[in-house]
Amino acid sequence: MTGLCTVLPAMTSPARYSMTPPPHMRWLFFVLAIFMVGVQSRPSLAQTAPLPPAQTVRFPSADGRTDLTGYLFSPSGAGPHPAIVMLHGRAGLYSGRVSSQCTLVAPGIPSPCDGDTLSQRHLAWTAYWIARGYLVLHVDSFGPRGVAHGFGRHTHGAPDRDEVNELTVRPLDAEGALAWLAARQEVNPARIMLQGWSNGASTALNVMQRQADRAAGSPAFAAALVFYPGCGRQALLSRTPALDRPVQVLLGGADEEVSPTTCQRVLQRVLRIRQARAPVVTVYPGATHDFDDPGRARQAIGANRQAREDALARLGDWLDRVPSLP
After folding, report:
1. Which residues, 6 or more positions from 67, have their beta carbon under 8 angstroms from its beta carbon?
2. Cβ of 238: how many Cβ atoms within 10 Å?
3. CATH topology of domain 5-16+24-321
């Protein structure tokens, strides 16, 4: 999987990327169960290895005026731990069962959208990273601005989305989360990672570009995992982005919301700063948008199952090997 772009053939077996977990990773089987359709057949796993409770936290966006809500999950042990900041997509952070009832998420305001109602995908990836010893922080960019319900498909030009856009707003939220985490004793500031989906993935690419021009000694993300971003002119800061840290980009070849071809074209033009490696780009033939959503609708598509299993098998080991910040 080295080099700029890898296109997996439709029938590639995920086994080629499988790994044997170290003995101390007792939660990995729980993680696999969450990601598998038909998890009902393994109920005891979820009962014996529950996620740690979410801690609701507040911290400032780097915009200097927005108080953000986040949900912090901590692994066992004193640390300092590596950490990963997660950026939700345009549908928001919360489960579709409750999100339509939500607007503002802020202190003292009752809302069904909270740390107990995160979406299935966000909980699954939380379990995955907790099992590997990462501290996980979900950043809610929408709730503190009164749009916790998120947005539907093909709403990119809607006026109310401009207040939470991925170019000038959400990157500052990610940078606020980075600064907040880097100051915490239980976090290793040299190993804070970034993961985003769709609109949050475009945000992640913009964050990585912004930080390539940072001053020496400033906090930075050590790496980013980018799932099916929009790469058009409305989504990215540059058609020739500059990157100075490792980035993995995962695209669905049959994505019905964003163009994988456009993303590949943009990522082929990346300017590599400080001798950074080219981003690793994987295109999964036949996979759709949201291919890693563990819900039945998405996982009824075989290409989505294969793509999700490949990501699960590869990304933890890859992120563990990313060099720490100097």
Report:
1. 58, 59, 60, 61, 106, 144
2. 14
3. Rossmann fold (3.40.50)
